Every structure is written in C-alpha cells, then in structure tokens.
Amino acid sequence: MATKSTRIAVLFYLLLAFIVDCEAKDFDVRTYGARPNGDIGQALAKAWKDACASPTPSKVVIPSGIYNLKVAKFEGPCKAPIVFQLQGTLKAQTNPSGFNEGEGWITFLRIDKLTLTGGGTFDGQGKNTWGKQCSSTKYCDKLPMNIRFDFITNSLVENIVSLDSKQFHINALGCEHLTFSSVKIIAPGTSANTDGIHIGRSTSINITDSFIQTGDDCISIGDGSRQITITKVTCGPGHGIKEPVQGVFVRNCTLKNTMNGIRIKTWPDSYNGVASDMHFEDIIMENVGSGGNPIVIDQAYCPWNKCNAQVSSKVRISNVSFKKIRGSSATAVAVKLACSKSFPCQNVQISDINLTYSGKEGPVKSQCQNVKPTILGQPHPALCIA
C-alpha cells in the first residue's frame, strides 16, 4: 500500500494536470502544417516554442494518426505550466545512426510543471537494432533512448506507451517531484539493454499503476537518487527491479517470468558509497529468477568480466527489508544475499517470505554471505545466517 505522502503527491499532480488541461490554450500541430504519415519535426518544434512562451497554461496537441519524427528536444523553462498531449503515434527512424552516447530520441529538458499525457505511443522502432553484443563494442551506448527527462520538476507523466525502444525506454536524470502513472512499456524479452524506467540522481520520484515488459531491468535506479516510491507495477518479462540507492520503497507489485526479481547490486572494486533504506513489501512473483534469483543482493556484480572481482565492493548496504513476498521461483535458490566481505550488509530484515520451486534442481533454498539477517516468522525457504 502506498504511503500517505505518496498518495498525496500523486493526487496533487493529477489535480494539477486536470487544472492545467482545463485552462490550457491548445497549440495543435496541424495548425503548423503537420499531417499524418509525414515528418512532424518542424511543425512540432514550432508548436512547442509558441506553447512554452505562452504566459498562461498551454497544451501542445498531437491528434490521432501516425507521425514520423527523426529527433526532438523540448526545452524550458516555460513561462507557465505546459501539457504535451500525444493522442497518436510518433515513429522514430529505424536507422539508429547520428546519435551520441546517452542521447534520447525525444528529450524534455529543464521544465517545471510539465504534463505528458494523451494515451499515445512513442514507437522507437528498435527491432532491427537488438541482438548485437554490447559487451565487446560501444554499439549499445550510442543507441538512443526513447524518452529522456532531464531536470524536470513538479511534473506528471501519465497514460502513455513506450514501444520497442532502441535502448532505455525512459530515463530520468536530475528530476525532482516527478510522477509516472499508468505508463505502459512494451518490448520483447530479447530486446537488449532496454531498461523500462531508469532513474539517476533524482529525488521524490513516484512510479505507480504501470505495466512494464522489456528485455532488461523493468525499473533501475542509479546513484544519487533518493525517495523513490514504486507501487502497483506489473513487471515481466524483464530482469526485475534493481536498486542501489537511498530511500526506495517498492510495494504492491507483481513480477512475471522475469530473470531476476528484486535485486540490489553493486560492482566489486567500486567507489565508496552507501545504499540504504530500501524496502520491498507485498510483492507477488510468478516463475521469477530464470536468469538469477527472486530475491538477491549481489555485491559481486561483474557483467562481461570487465572488473576486478578480487577486490570487494566498497558500497555499504544497510537498512533493507523484504516483507510479504510470495509466489513461485524459477530456480532452487530463491533467496541469495551475497554481501561485501569488506563491508558486510547491516540491518537486513526478512519476514513473511513464501516462495516455492518445483523444478529439477532440488528443494527450494537460500544462500547467504557476509550478512546476518533478522528473520521474523518462518520464511520459506528457510534462511541461512552466515
């Protein structure tokens, strides 16, 4: 169940969006020459420029239809609250060339009181870009993300679809008080490096009532992020929910056929850091852990063997709880807590865990290393204390 503060925050932004939407002046891209099945770039840029300059609330409208868009950046600050209402489908180019590392196909930058809504689809057309090895080349780094939110504040993203992104679907960097509600993210489980929502260096981010199926982490949270609340999210396929930060609350979510479930991971030989106050409660899992484990702390995460695995992680993990997590595991090791030898995990609490396994690897079990969790009740599987 969401906390009272979370409910208030979400209701506030929904109310703000309703008020802005009712009062806003429309800037319809058709007025600027946009037509279905044509390139919308110039018309959309002009509509945004005029709407952002409006001294009263404004709304950029993209009506039903399919529109082509090479790349777009919507930059503030704007003079008043602004709505970006996508009712149709924006289609990216299939050719991913021309982007620099970390760039977005569509970027919203330095805007306060933005509402992105409309029920429309951002189609990244990424199918032809997946399947190449990211580890041996920089290929994946230069693939564009579907939507970037950079330094967005007091804003709402709701009722949109991100489809087949070439890289991350949604990336939020340096944002504050940003809510994602009723967001749908769709890509096959084979789509490499397509995290659903990635959050970095952001504060007070809420993700709720959303559906994410993709080929990488459903939700990933990078360093410098605080007070992240995730509720009523359905995840799968994908790699699960990954958290290495401070102040994360994940509640009332469902994970289906994901490679991992709830995962806290740090690299060996990492910089000094802290990952604390991470709480996971009321989670349903269905056949989770085909590529890892349903519940996992992994402080020796080393993809493609590109790290010094002989040196322990220097990230201090503390104040972590796993409560009311039930369902089925795709692997016999349903709980794996592998903490740093140099800095063992502190104050890890586990209660009301009931995970079953019916495969050929033997009875369901757990593994613990460099951690002494507090165990409440009779968890299944039985938990080790190292």
* Unreliable parts: 1-14
What composes the largest sheet? 16 strands, parallel
Helix content: under 10%
Tell me, briefly, the overall form. elongated
- The helix/strand series, from N terminus to C terminus, equals HEHEEEEEEEEEEEEEEEEEEEEEEEEEE
Beta percentage is: over 45%
Radius of gyration over C-alpha positions, nearest whole angstrom: 21 Å
Whole-number average pLDDT? Answer: 89
Tally of strands: 27
Distance between the amino and carboxyl termini: 32 Å
Q: Please identify the structural class as seen in this structure.
A: mainly beta
Task: Please tell me about this protein's structure.
With 386 residues, the chain is mostly beta strands. The chain has 2 helices and 27 strands. The chain has helices at 4-23, 41-53; strands spanning 25-28, 58-62, 66-68, 72-75, 82-86, 89-91, 104-109, 114-117, 121-123, 145-150, 153-163, 170-173, 176-186, 197-200, 203-213, 219-221, 226-235, 241-242, 246-256, 262-265, 273-288, 295-298, 315-329, 333-338, 346-356, 365-369, 374-376. The protein has a 16-stranded parallel sheet that branches. An 11-stranded parallel sheet has the order 4-7-10-12-14-16-18-20-22-24-26. The longest helix has 20 residues, at 4-23. It starts with a helix and ends in a 10-residue tail after the last strand. The model is unreliable at 1-14 (pLDDT under 50).
